[in-house]
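Fold this sequence, please.
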Amino acid sequence: MGCLDGEQWQTAIRNFEASLQLDPDFKAPWVNLGFAWLRLKNWDRAIEACDAGLYRHPHTPHCYYNKGLALYFKALDAEAQASGKHWEPNQHLRSEALKAFDEARANLERSAMWTERDDVLAEALRNSWARLLRPLSWEGWKFFGWRP
C-alpha cells in the first residue's frame, strides 16, 4: 500500500499482482491494481483489473468507480481524435462509463465518498451533444482493508 502513497505505480502493480497470485479472491489488490493502472493512464488495463475484481466481488463500488473513470478517459481520448465537423460523441464508451458510475453510487457503503466532482463527470457523460473535458483534478478510489 505504501507504493500507492509514494506514487510508485509500477512497483505497486507488481506487488498487487503478486498478492493476487497468492489469493485471487482478496478484494483490495483488485481495487488498487485498477487504481494504479488509472494513475499510469492505461485505461484498458484499469478496466481489465476492475472487471476481474467485479467478477469476484460484484458489489464493489471502488471497482465500478475506477472502471467508470477509465471509461470516461477512454471516451475523452477517442473523441479528441476526431476534429471539427467530424466530431461525434462515443456513445458506447459514455454509456458504459455512466453505467459504471451509477453502479458505484448504488453500491456505496458511505455516501460521502461520492462528491460533487463525481456528479460533474456523470453529467458530462449524459450530455451527448457536448465534448468531454479533462477534469482539473481526479482521483480513483483506493481500498484499504483486510479480507471480508
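The longest helix spans residues 61-81. The mean pLDDT is 87.
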